[in-house]
Write a structure and sequence with these properties.
The structure is a single chain. The protein is an alpha/beta fold. The chain has a single domain, classed as Rossmann fold. The chain is built from six helices and six strands. The strands form two sheets. Strands 3-4-5-6 form a four-stranded parallel β-sheet, with helices on both faces. The chain has a two-stranded parallel sheet with strand order 1-2. The two termini are 31 Å apart.
Length: 216
């Protein structure tokens, strides 16, 4: 969507195959670079070599940290923070060297931080920690705009880690429990991100993109 809107887009990640596939699909206005967001030296090198840019979207995440609290593996929860919280903060902080001050940072957190769902206390802690920082960052870093998108259940390859039967049943139950009657698609989140990039009168906001699941 950003490419279609005329932007030059740089995609980063640890998997060169995924990056190359995305760049090939998006065309000449898209570029890719292999970067491990958990590595400060790699981030510093990437931003220094990339040069100035206007908007940063941070989609770094993981799968660790879920489960019922009474049996939650605290080491697994620690891994969850290492996979999402710390890399997102590191990317944002390191980018400040060259990110234009009239641009924006958009974090991607998750609806677990704003829904009281049993079995997600660890995920709520990870994403809640990010959410809690958004208003303060928006004030401290102004005029740079800082926002977050908080997605609900979104159909992405993240769910390929579970069986197809479980996935289908879970999606059906989740859809039935939302006011809009469906689970989300990647396009839903993308539209929200683009709104936050383009609307220069929004900062310090956490936008729920969950089909109203938090209301139920």
């Amino acid at each position: 969507m950003l490419v279609e809107a005329g932007a030059e887009v740089t995609i980063t990640g640890r998997n060169p195959e995924k990056i190359n596939t995305a760049v090939a699909l998006l065309g000449e206005r898209a570029h890719g670079s292999v970067v491990d967001a958990a590595s400060i030296p790699q981030l510093q090198t990437f931003f220094r070599e990339h040069g100035a840019f206007e908007h940063l979207v941070i989609a770094v995440s993981g799968a660790a940290g879920g489960g019922a609290f009474h049996s939650l593996d605290l080491q697994d929860l620690r891994h969850g923070f290492e996979a999402k919280f710390w890399p997102q903060i590191a990317v944002a902080q390191t980018s400040l060297q060259i990110l234009q001050r009239d641009g924006s940072i958009t974090f991607i957190t998750a609806g677990s931080s704003r829904q009281a769902l049993p079995g997600t206390v660890g995920l709520a802690a990870i994403n809640g920690a990010l959410d809690a920082m958004i208003p303060t960052l928006a004030v401290e870093l102004r005029p740079l705009r800082v926002n977050a998108v908080s997605p609900g259940i979104i159909v992405t390859p993240w769910w390929d880690r579970v069986s197809e039967d479980f996935r289908n049943d879970f999606f059906a139950q989740s859809a039935a429990g939302t006011p809009v009657g469906r689970v989300g698609q990647p396009e839903d989140v993308a539209q929200t991100i683009i709104f936050l990039i383009q609307n220069t009168f929004v900062t310090g906001s956490i936008i729920d993109c969950d089909g109203g699941a938090r209301l139920c």
